[in-house]
Inverse folding.
């Protein structure tokens, strides 16, 4: 897999944000191998806590990286994912039009066009690292959307800090 870019939506009116890390996924790479390659990629090693490269060894969001394997992920339906994200984004004040437009452009089409969506369930009880409570007090929503027609794997994290 080849990393392409990150899309970051960060409304100024709330603590919420959405990160989408986009990878090109070759057709011959099956889902489990794609998830394994994503987990092994340095860009997955992100605490999402603004610490820069200092935590890019053993953490992912609020979790110890070692606790996450391809088998940790579960399949999610597009309708369920969209409901979670739309509900989560409405927790606080309404987002500015530009951020809502970015969600309509970058998030929801990826959910709708995905061949398959994998969800990282909440594994805090067994895998939260020593300061993992800093990220995602209102939820750490992680989805991996694989779109075979587009040759794309999109890692989406919707959370807060």
């Amino acid at each position: 897999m080849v990393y392409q870019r990150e899309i970051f939506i960060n409304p100024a009116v709330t603590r919420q944000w959405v990160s989408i890390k986009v990878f090109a996924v070759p057709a011959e790479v099956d889902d489990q191998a794609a998830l394994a390659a994503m987990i092994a990629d340095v860009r997955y090693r992100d605490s999402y806590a603004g610490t820069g490269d200092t935590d890019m060894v053993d953490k992912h969001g609020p979790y110890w990286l070692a606790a996450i394997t391809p088998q940790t992920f579960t399949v999610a339906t597009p309708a369920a994912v969209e409901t979670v994200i739309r509900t989560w984004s409405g927790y606080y004040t309404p987002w500015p039009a530009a951020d809502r437009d970015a969600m309509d452009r970058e998030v929801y089409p990826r959910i709708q066009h995905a061949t398959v969506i994998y969800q990282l369930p909440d594994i805090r009880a067994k895998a939260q690292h020593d300061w993992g409570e800093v990220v995602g007090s209102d939820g750490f929503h992680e989805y991996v959307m694989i779109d075979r027609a587009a040759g794309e794997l999109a890692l989406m994290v919707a959370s807060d800090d």
User: Anything to note?
Assistant: The chain has a mean pLDDT of 93. The radius of gyration is 15 Å. The beta strands are 2-9, 16-24, 59-60, 63-64, 74-76, 116-120, 141-147, 152-160. The longest strand covers residues 16-24.
